[in-house]
Each structure stands twice: as C-alpha cells, then as structure tokens.
Design goal:
The complex is a heterodimer of chains A (117) and B (280).
Chain A: H1 3-25, H2 29-51, H3 73-104
Helix pairs in contact in A: 1-2, 2-3
Chain B: H1 3-26, H2 37-48, H3 54-62, H4 64-85, E1 91-93, H5 103-125, H6 134-145, H7 147-151, H8 154-160, H9 163-187, H10 210-237, E2 239-241, H11 252-265, H12 268-274, H13 276-279
Antiparallel strand pairs in B: 1-2
The chains are: A mainly alpha (117), B mainly alpha (280).
Amino acid sequence: MNLFGLLPYLVAGWILLIGMYGLVTSRNLIHAVGCLAVAQSATYVLLLSIGFRRGGTAPVYSDTSTHSVVVDPVVQALALTDVVVGATVTALLLSLVIQLHKRHSTIDPDRLNALRG
Amino acid sequence: MSRTGRVRLFLCAAAVIAVAYTLACTGLPHFGSAVHPYGARAVAATLKQRTANTISSINFDQRAFDTLGEESILLGSVLGATALLRRTDDERLSRRRVARVLPSTRLFGTLLLPVALLTGIYIVAHGQLSPGGGFQGGVILATALHLAYVAADYRALDRIRPRELLDSVDAVAAGAFTCLGLAGLIASAAYLKNVLPLGTFNTLSSGGMVPVINAAVGIEVASGVIVLLAYFLDQSITTSPGEADGTDPSDASGTSGTSDTSGTSDASGTSDASDPRKAT
C-alpha cells in the first residue's frame, strides 16, 4: 500500500494523539473536555475514511438511481451514533465540571487533589 | 507526578501507540477501495425495505436495537446532567433583567424562529427519504427554540419553553421507542422488527417503522437537548450562590468567566472560606 492510501488513517491517529496530548497537559477541565472531543473526532475520520469508495456518492437514493455507486453506509450510521454519544458525554462532563467548580472553587486538575465531602 | 514527567510518560506511550497504530493501518482495506461487503449488504437490505435513505434504514430498521441503546445513552446523560445541575438549597434564583437587543436581531430572530422550527420538523419527517432524521432534526428543533433567547431575552425563552412538560415528554418519547419494538414481538418473533406496511419507494409513507421511530427519536432528542440547555442556562444566568461574597446576583451571567481566574489565583485557604457548603 502506498503512503497516500494510508494518509487518511494516519490523520485519524494524529488527531487521537493530539487530543490525548491536550488531555495530559491540560490546566483547565473545560479545555480537557474539549480535548476529549478532539480525541473522539478521530473516530469520525477513521470511520468515514474506511467507508470511502472512489467515485461513490452519498448512500441516499431519493434523487439518484438505485444502481449508482455509493460509499459504505454502515460506517456513516456508526459515525452518527458516535456524534450523538460524543455530544451527550460532553454535556454530562461539563455539568460535572460545574459541580467541581462549586465545591472546590477551581477547575485546574492539578489543584483538585483533596477529598471534600 | 510532575508536569514534565507526565509529558515524558505520555510521549513514550504515544510513540508506542503511533507505531502499533501505523502497523495496524497497513492491514486495513485500501482507502477508496470498491469492496465493501457490509455496505453492499446493507444497501441491498435497504432497497428491499423500500427506504431511500440507507443510513436511516440502518439506524432505525436494520440496527434499530443498537439505536435503542444509543438513545438510552442520550436519556441517561440528560438524567445525569439534570441530577448534577439541579438547584440546591444554598442557591437561589436571581432576578432576571430585561435585556437590550438590537432591533435587527429581534426582527431576524422573530422571523427565523418559525422557519427554523419548520426546518426541524421537515428534517425529522423526511428522515427516511433525504439526509437527516430524528437525531439531526431534533437538534435543529431544540436550537430553533433558543432563537427566542437570542432575539429577546431569557424570560421570553422561559415563556415558550414548557420545561416540566418537556421533562416528561423526553421520557415518554424514549419509552415510545421501546414500546414500538414490542409491536415486532407481537406481530412476529423479533423485537423491533419492521412490521408496518413498507409503502412505495421514495414517498413520505415508505419505510414501514422507520418514520415512526424517527418521530419518536426526534421528539426525544429535541426535548432532551432543550432540557439540557435549560439546566446549563440556569446555571449561568439565573442561579447564584446564596451566600455570595458581595457579588451582585443580577451580574451572575458574567461570573462564569471571571470566577475561573479568581478561583485559580486564590490560595486554597481563602477559597475554603468562600465556599458556601463549608459555611452551612
């Protein structure tokens, strides 16, 4: 396989690693939640590049012939699931950050080192 | 662990992940290849079920049980955020000010709100035909309602948003999806089986159960997102800590940005004293 065929997959890996780097070095939990969303978006790129088919169109037959070449719809449905789950997890994490800020008056993960009832 | 130590540890792990991932990628199907066995089978099954939008057919017919799980994640996260962000005893609602809005913003917001609502309903209703469906349309419906907040103020949004009702609508719509699956169990042997007449390909009533489940999901997503945003907006706009240290409650919308910096610059001793939970 040549490098060009690998490139979309490697881009997905790069997005995952850069999101994880952001998580590790984060000084703000809201920033960390954003980094998690970046790391998760790697899965969209990976799924959609696996499903890509050269010359394929969108797998919707309302205005094209049923014999036209389409990209893989299964991974697109998975990506949709992924987006929904990602959005809900982000909402839940942000509400946790709000609670943390109320109790500890800080959202710097390095300062959150004491248990508090 | 110190910051530099942590970054070094991460870089070592990242190098391992990068090498293993690149090796794994060489074994993946070639980018853009014509062979997609799952895709080909899904498309064939979609055409058999007379649904024009393959992705809707996969999500709400072929993999409907998975979508039930996905929808439960949405309901669970709305429940979790509701439980986390509920108003506690030491917080109180502050007076909501009448906000000043530019006349042009007010005009375009008022004009666009019904258009955006209609677009949302269209996207939900045509989920089996064109790109879209319950998830996408539901989010459009929820954001359309919040044009009232942009065009007027929070009180206007509060007036057009029946919050207690939406709380129950969210749960009822999630339950409706579960109950729709029972129809398949009664009519045949499989849960969530597509038992309704399939209709004519590429018409609004095609796809059997797909438009019905789409509608249930659309209502659930719309009400879920509205409820979620309502709790988040309450946090930043109308809720203020009961024993706030001299901060004007009417200025609560501005504190979310500034309290972060004051929190990080505070020594841990002073932040203890200003914590309302410690004082009670």
